[in-house]
Amino acid sequence: MELNGPDLKWPAVLVTGVVVALLLAYGVHRWMARRSARASAAVANSTALTELPEYRRALKLHRIRTAVLALSAVLLGGAALVGAARPLDTTIDKPQTRSRDIMLCLDISGSMAAYDATLVSTFRTLVKSFQGERIGLVIFNSSAATVFPLTDDYDFINDELDTASSALSGDPQSESFFAGTFNGRGTSLIGDGLATCASSFDKVDTQRARSVVFATDNHLAGRPIVDVEQAAELAKAKGVRVYGLNPEQDGPDEEAVQMRELVTGTGGQYYAMTDQAAIRGIVDSVQAQETTLIDGAARSLHSDNPNLPIALAGVGLLGVIGASRRWAW
């Protein structure tokens, strides 16, 4: 972030004010000159008066007071014009983002109902550990739906995760959260969910590190379009590392073993949700991937800064008040 210096929101106000002030000053000068010419009259034997020390001192004080009054009026008027033009401090912000993309992929089928709210809380903890990475969220059951695409707007991400938490906790006002996840036949079509997540990254940007945090119990209950083995191969082909997060205990059951083999085959890691080191392990693994800082589009940030015009107007006002009073000597 760099300071670009002071600026004016409405510079036309200042220009117009200066032009009007100059025209008024010229008009007043012409009017006073004509009035002085008509009112002037020769006074005989006035030299004796004008040579008096008291007269000279009074004339000098009058000229000083007139000059102070004029300068103070100009200062007050000028400061008022600058204030009316809205002085601003302009700062150029050049945001930087890290070249990592992370898709949060959540199975919301019936077998996951008891764990989903806790998994969303886990996702929130993961998000807090990142800064500058782009995050997205996909949920799936009989079909997959994108809750929000990749973004680095963390306020928005947290708001969406709050909505997800409410919906998965049974809030009837958040039922729209599940829209688009019941368009297929069967439930818990895990391969379709993983394939959707792996395909959610930018097609043209191959320089960004890509990761999927895949939360599922791997209990298939239907016939997917893409089976989970094919989805894992798709992720691997796209350079996507899958980090599996299983809410059930890590044991010898076939689904857990299969899930471990699939995610480690993409270069990722497998964790049980009960593993206290799961969050730290996922964060460390993602952050260990090589990345570079990417400059975002520069943007101008403006903030009002009326301090100087107010101070100058105050000085000018004091000068006008002081010069307008009759000085006693």
Automatic annotation (TrEMBL):
Keywords: Membrane, Transmembrane, Transmembrane helix. The lineage of its organism: Bacteria, Bacillati, Actinomycetota, Actinomycetes, Micrococcales. The chain crosses the membrane at residues 12-28, 66-85. Residues 101-286 form the VWFA domain. Gene3D superfamilies: von Willebrand factor, type A domain (3.40.50.410). This is VWA domain-containing protein. It comes from the Bacteria. InterPro entries: VWF_A, vWFA_dom_sf.
